[in-house]
Amino acid sequence: MKFQDKEHLYGNNNNKKQIIPKIILIAIFVIIIVLVTPLSYPLFGSSVLLIRTKSKAPNSNIDLIEQETLPSTSLKECDIFNGEWVPNPKAPYYTNKTCWAIHEHQNCMKYGRPDSDFMKWRWKPNECELPIFNPFQFLEIVRGKTLAFVGDSVGRNHMQSLICLLSRVEWPIDVSYTKDDYFMRWRYPSYNFTMAFFWSPFLVKAKQENSDGPTHTGLYNIHLDEFDHKWTSQIEGFDYVIINGGHWFFKPMVFFEKGKIVGCHYCLLENVTDLTMYYGYRKAFKTALQALNSLENYKGVTFLRTFAPSHFENGLWNEGGNCLRTKPFKSSETRLESTNMELYMIQLEEYKIAQKKAKKNGLKKVRLFDTTQAMLLRPDGHPSRYGHLPNENVTLYNDCVHWCLPGPIDTWNDFLLEMLKTERVKFKGEKKPQIV
User: Entry's Pfam families (predicted)?
Assistant: First the structure.
């Protein structure tokens, strides 16, 4: 009997008693589908979209760029400036033989540097991945725009790195207003993109008073409250401005405010108070940032690039110091301290002040381009004695200030591209993309 009941339930279609149980089963099945499908959509929806996106092959560089700049699905913010260096066997992405923009003093391989591993690292933020610089992406983002580097020779070092990385897409043409190497302009015709370099190592009005001075590196009069019109008079039309300053402030300086001497740094002049380099450094950044915030027609984004420490060991730069390490530090092996820490903190403080003023203005934007931690960990990236011929008479015989090209400074353009992506999203009012 029990067997017959089972047979009626599952096997005999002619028995009308089966109809009600079957209808019940079907109803239950439909209800389950209706209830479960919406709940499962978030699990499968993104995969469906991903398959659909992948099925469309890019037919141009622009299509490829658009796909690569789609927001990712990370759920948290990431500090791209906090991390470690990890091996990157694919690097470098250009060589000293393929890029003519490398300054002689940073052309380490040309002058016989025996090791090459210093070129084969990438920056890995602690909580995400930082994409390697994509020249097509970069040029598409800056299409029709302008970028200026304002500062010292390390800033120029950065610009030359950018030119070399972009050379995989296009070489720029020289559109400089002058033949002076300290004020160069380069234009990328296919993208109508122009970048310029403005030499201003003190960022404010300055003049060399004595070519020798106490340390045989010159004595400079620094007008801490006056704009350097060599760059401020030309900057208003730029979309992006990267300012930097650091190593020149170690030189002997006499400080002026309102046209009068207020003190100095290691000037060794009678009746002039030594206010230290920190006083001049703070005032100079305050004035430079004030210039950008106060220029009526400047509507660009200002990036304050933080101090990149030097790595002299076994002596100062003029006392036989060198930098012969061949691999990066780990973050646990060194730390920012002493002078480097003081200069860095001054920049952070002045950045925060300028950012608040910019927000009140409404049309100004100030961002922090924080390279300090990453570069503190790269004692292996400097030219040292491989920036010139062995017997050449140069001021900085062992260069532990600038950076070999190719080399770790190329990562600054990884940072730059990621920040430009963020700026573009902010400008369009979209949801900020996250890096994974």
Answer: PC-Esterase, PMR5N
